[in-house]
Amino acid sequence: MKLQRLGAGLLGVSIALFGSVVPAQAAGTLTVWVNSGEEAAYKAASASWAAKNGVTLNIVAKCGLGDCGLSKLGPAGAGPDLFTASHDNTGSLVKSGVVTSLSSVINKSAYPAAVLSGISFNYQQWGIPIAVSNIALATNKSLVPTGAPKTWKELESTATGLISSGKASVGIVTHLDGYFMQPFFDSVGGYVFANKNGAYTNTKQVGLYSKAVAKNASLMDGWLSEKLFDKSNTYDASAFTNGKAPYAVVGPWSIAGLDKAGVKYEISGIPSINGGTARSFSGVTAVYLNRFAKNKFLAKQFLTEVVQTAAFSKAITTANNSYPANLEAAASVDPSSVAGKFGAYGAVCIPMPNVSEMNNVWTYWNNAFADWASGKAKFGAAMESASNNLKKALGNS
Amino acid sequence: MSTLLSFNSKKTRFWLKKVLWRHLVGLVVIAFSVFPLVWMISAAFDATGQISTQQLIPLHRGLDNFTQLFSNTGKPFLTWARNSLVIALSAAALQVAIGALAAYSLSRHRFKGRKLTLTTILIVQMFPQLLAATTLFLIINTFGKSFVFLGLGHQLPLILIFGGSALGVNTWMLKSFFDTLPTEIDEAAKIDGAGHFEIFLKIIIPLATPIFVVTFLLSLIGMLNEYLITSVILGLDSKNMTVAVGLQQFIYGQYGKNWGPFTAGALLATIPVLALFIFLQKHLVSGLVSGSTKG
Amino acid sequence: MTTVNLKSISKSFKYALSFIFVLLILIMGAKLFRDKAWFLASFFFFSAGLIIYVYSISKKTPGKYLLPGVLLLTLFHIYPAFYSGAVAFTNDSNGHQLSKQQAIAAIIQDSRVPIDSQPPIPYQTLIETNSSKVFILFKYPDSTYWIANSGTIRKLKTNLKDIAPDGKIIKVDGFKVLTPAQTESYTSELQNLTVELDSGVSLQPQDLEFLEVSKPSFIYKASKDQLVNVLTGEIYSPNNNGQMASSSGEVILPGWKATIGWRNFTSIITDKEIRRPLLAVLIWTFVNAFLLVLLSFLMGLTLALIFNFPYLRSKRFYRTIFITPLAIPSVLSLLVWSGLFTTGTGVIDRLFHISTPWLTHPWWARVAVLIVELWITFPYMFLISTGAIQAIPNEILEAAQIDGASPLKSFTQIKLPLVVRTLAPLLVASTAMALNNFGAIYLLTGGGPTFSNSNGNAGATDILISYTYKLAFNSQEGNNYGLASALSILNFILVGLISIYGLRKMKTMEGIN
Predict the structure, then answer these.
(1) How much is the pTM?
(2) pLDDT at site C511
(3) Cα separation of the two ends of chain C
(4) Domain limits at C289?
(5) From the candidate CATH numbers 1.10.10.10, 1.10.3720.10, 3.40.50.1470, 3.90.550.10, the one assigned to the domain spanning B73-293
(6) What pLDDT was estimated at residue A67?
(7) Cβ <8 Å between C102 and A15
(8) DSSP, res C75
(9) Is C88 an interface residue toward B (CB < 8 Å)?
């Protein structure tokens, strides 16, 4: 009897105790998911706002690159309020219903048109852009004293000259896949989806084997045979740093390695065979709002008062060596710096298509490049079959 | 038997015919066995670590990779190591405890549904837990809403999940071993007035030490290796990760793989396990060997 | 005397401990129940009851030893397996994660178009005194005052004396007017509030002071279960895939999670995009498992025979080094192997002065996978073979020698059959595990090189489990949990059948001799 009463008492006390241990988010807290390694930068850039408004900012490094399981986490209430992602995920994020439109929050005039198109989908804007990143051409100044090539002819002749004289083993160090080869692909007239005013509206029009590609395919075969590209398709950065290759296609992530190896390099755009500059893909990092966020008001306030400011864009991009998406911040970047050079080239690049059909594209496109590199097929044939396969796959979905 | 130092030609010829070739085979197999380990060591001490183009004697010898590994605040190796140890040791202990209890009962008690239980244990293990990862995630997420310490990103739920896999092949192995212990021991103890649990604790467990060591070690290695369910439950927050999950961050993504710190970390992760192996190899070998004959 | 006391103390200590433990489980169950986690709550209550029954009431001892393991097994293995199985009958995939209600709300929410030159309008928050429900009070479009929340809306008849000079209402009958400072604690209700006027205009709080005025392009007619586009007049009804579709087949995203019956299973057979790569994957699953077990067993057995030679010293040395592969965490060694296999410039190619497309050519990739799997498995096979050989009673071997049997005959007719019979159960278990050998495939090649005519998920070294994993978590077309669950069931049946077959064969073998 006594025992039972003791038990009941314990039960009651414990329920009361446990009831108060509620792992809920207090009002005045914001959870933001960012890319691993960037928490410090985000924390620093938002600290004063958080202090002024009495907001607890939880900035957590949780793969801020894409979906990150949000399609399951969001509806389950385990998602953040805001998260960063690269813009090519916009389509699939919208499709999954995980993000909510930011058209009424964003200040469109603060960003260049290309950047805006990256985060636009279905006539709405879904993310607040922070940074733009793209690949660029690095020239080894010790091998090529004249510096970055101004025309394609200059690039080709320099490279082949060095190769035939035995000084270089390959012309351009690069991955032979869609993302890295995009500028060269653009040069010969290829494209992924038809692009209208920056929007990829027509995913039925596939340009993997456009008329121009068909015509210029032999050029690519020629470049492969004259060792402009490396058949083995291994990105051997040491070839560039050791002076065995005059050019390399690099991204902002490569800069630390280049500096460490002590090589003298210059960053520039990639010249097109038609004169002018070939267009690479640019990637926009943007902040998105979780439809199931617990603190929507606070999140929107944060977006308006902090994320959209030039100062924020500048702070984040300085920390991770990328280029600001915000026009005002971009204007303050030193054009002769490495980030400035990346940005200058990035201004003429096209944003990666943000439609979810892109996932299919990468598979067939990368396979085609792999087949071409290994010698299984000529460039034209490889692209033609990729184009056909892609059209079939898209037609089915 | 015969030593090389004796110049007895008959014995030397015997040795050459029967023994030398075995040593040669052994050398080849040793080379095969330690092959990745050798290159891991080279890459770990090579500052320009690119495992694909690695040279046997590192070009830029140095401890750069190790310093990089330990100074990376975004990728805290020591925290990962601590997490790995806590989780693996607890989970292995839990698995051995649960397995031993179950195996003892399955070995000693003849009850209705015993055969069914044994077969069910085998069959259930055939549904790979990794495919149920989303469900496990949802379960732990629900737990987390009511009890913070049982939610995502915490170690306790992960250890309990691993405990759920305790009734498996290891139980079979333990049961087979218990089967070899004659029931007369139990009978004698019962006559002395011992209860069934007392027999288990005081008699069976001491006798089964070698097999427990084997099972514990195999469980430990399994838990240290596990990265799929670990990453699902512990999440993507760097300070929660274990070594198996965290080291992969260095080589994540198509571009910008950082093999140097990765191999350095992998080497550090291998040494304790290897040392444990060598230290316990007597038990391990005899355990596995006996486990096979009674299996 | 003292033993009796000790025993009774330890007994009551045990009772107290178990009492507290059961209480803990009941309390946790109660909390889960309060938090509406129905399944987990009932599991906890059931477990508590079972614990009480097994440990105090029941006389049978086996349960006491088996219960902890069985409870954990049920919660973390059996239940998830059944749950995943149930998912196989839904269209759970990317674009179908929300409930129908959430999906429709999302469509309407995102279709809002701001009304031209209509700035945000200020509002006040009210609490209804009887129900404590949250209401908002605002003036729109001219001087009409409305009181509304998500469910109801009505005009407010205002008395001039209740209106402050700045337009704010001071008091309302039956309601408490909140000051700006007090509204903060009702943030979550205000965030989810949407007011719809008859004119199709929708108002939503955009922060604690202002309402955003817009017109959604879609209206949901609950009675007809239709979504209507007010601009075009197009009508959308649910299709059989959890989406709102028009008569011409145009689909609005996002969709929702819907039960689709056996469609995932039938699509495995009917959908070419799934069927074609699946067949190749299935074949390789069997071939890979069979070769892995056969080759590693042969290697292990051969080495066991070679190194069981009595005159060979340093047996222990070899045994220790041979099992090195087991000591390196496989997740790390596999990734290192993938680096060593790099074509041309990789370690292996440089050592043998060859250039092989290890990971990029389908057949070479399969060879690479088998080499690495062999490296991982042969130590185990070596050890158990050694055990089995050592277990052969010496009398049999001596008898054979006396009978004049040659070493070869001794091996094939005596040693081999005995060893195989002894190891048969372990070999069956190894085959079952080899069929699900996820790590070796996924970490080494990722299942690649990808089949160029597949939907991008299947490759030359994919086995069923890696293919299923990629479909569920890494798919090129958006994760398809429904299809992956269907394939998991298939996988389970396959592995189960083979294991049962193996076990049966083993039983018949034991029957012989």
Answers:
(1) 0.81
(2) 52
(3) 57
(4) 268-510
(5) 1.10.3720.10
(6) 58
(7) no
(8) I
(9) no
